[in-house]
Amino acid sequence: MDQTLKTIVDFIMSTRKDPPPDAVLDRCREILVDTLGCAVGGRNCIGAQVARAFPAIPEGEAGTVIGSAKSVTIDIAAFWNTAMIRYLDFNDLLDNGHPSDMIGGLVAMSRTTKASGKDMLIAIAIAYEIYYRLARIVLSREPWTIDQGYCVAIGATAGICHLLRLSREETTHAISFAAANGAPLRVSRAGELSHYKGAATAVSTRHAVFCVHMARSGMTAPSAPFDGRHGIVELMRGQAGPLDLAAFDAWQVLKTRLKYFPVAYNTQIGIWAALELRKQVDYRRLEKITLSTSLFLKHESGSEPAKWDPQTRETADHSLPYIFSRALQDGTVNINTFDLEKVLDPGIRKIINKLTVEGDAAMGGAEFPDVVQARLKAVDRDGKTYEVHVRDPLGHYLNPLTVADIENKFMHLTEPALGRERAAAAFDLAWRMKEAESFVPVLDAFVAERVDS
Questions:
Q1: What is the pLDDT of residues 399-416, one digit of tens each?
Q2: Considering the entire predicted model, what is its pTM?
Q3: Sign (positive or negative) of CA dihedral 359, 363, 366, 371
Q4: Mean pLDDT, rounded, of the chain
Q5: What is the DSSP letter of 17?
Q6: Which of 37, 292, 342, 441 could form a disulfide with 410 if both were Cys (CB 3.0 to 4.6 A apart)?
């Protein structure tokens, strides 16, 4: 066994004797409530339609789908849940991706494992800690080719191993399976984005379920998927060696950011810059706008031609020029901002064409990604200059959403499906999940009266 694999398994097993403190569980509760709301809001996405097309199976063998009573296999339920969670791009961020995508797999397994509310929160904490440490190394390395699904598959596998109380040996094999066959490419987030942008990590959570199944069934896995010959280190660096995973000595899940706007997380700073600029000048008077931000944000959301002329919803919610311009013109960004008629609106391109996005190495230095910031300079038709500097947008762990913010977002996302009274009841149950002996009633509260067929 390589050292990285041993370190991860040691951490998973240690949480049985020394579970996370209450502050960590409370943060996981906020994340889970936020994630459930995002899933209900994304209930009609293409990934959910694909999953819904699979035939039903006997209820006793089924996984749990957020907001649906249909019985499907656990792996399809994991895919379905994560596709819904990701669709609106409204779920959380920790370092280089969206670890709440892993929750889709944990929820799928929750009924089968008879998980309590606290079990779910601990599983989330385990998954996030592993995700964070892997992401800091694997996803941060230029040219950013490996996608976040690699870390999602491993973290989700770890959380499921906890829910099932697998042995050390079974857990070791399950984690190795996830690491050895779970390295997706970031091509799903490049160019004109397809439906797959919102479903790529759903494939990873489905993979996690199968990895656990193989391990529980007695199949053995490679002994050194991280540090050994042909492992992930060799793929990244050209030769085998230690991954140098950070020690599990602090709870990094506390750094999770929740989103106030339904866009790629780092682009939110552009919205706040636009809103500040609106306070100073009528956007119709502007002739030139220069937005300076991190090299990563420019690379991901402001460097490709498709981001300057988005043709799909998936591209638009990752397009810094479009998102900034909509916020500047409309005074907000919401789910309706990405309706196709708005995305294709020729009028918004008049603002986009006045914008220049520049990468600033200082903003992407040692502080990034812990500090997110942008500077803006605009000039109006009379030559007057306006300047804005914004950092750590609302929802950042240094500028967190309040409980009221989380509840308002949850209600906004769930009321259309559940109605106000049922949505309020679902929030109340979910918020009190730490004391719940079973997680099942929490999930049952999300199923609308009309069952999906």
A1: 999 999 999 999 999 999
A2: 0.93
A3: negative
A4: 93
A5: T
A6: 37
End-to-end alpha-carbon separation of the chain, Å? Answer: 46
What span, in angstroms and rounded, lies between the C-alpha atoms of 25 and 254? 10
Contact between 111 and 443 under an 8 Å Cβ cutoff? The reply is: yes
35: closest CA among 105, 103, 108?
Answer: 103
The pLDDT tens digits for 23-57 are: 999 999 999 999 999 999 999 999 999 998 888 88
Give the pLDDT confidence score for residue 453 in this predicted structure: 38
83-119: pLDDT as tens digits = 999 999 999 999 888 999 999 999 999 999 999 999 9
Q: Residue 259: what residue type?
A: K
User: What Å distances lie between residue 137 and 186, 246, 265, CA to CA?
Assistant: 15, 9, 19
Strand-pair partners of 373: 391
DSSP reduced 3-state for 20: coil
Q: How many CA atoms lie within 13 A of 181 on its CB side?
A: 16
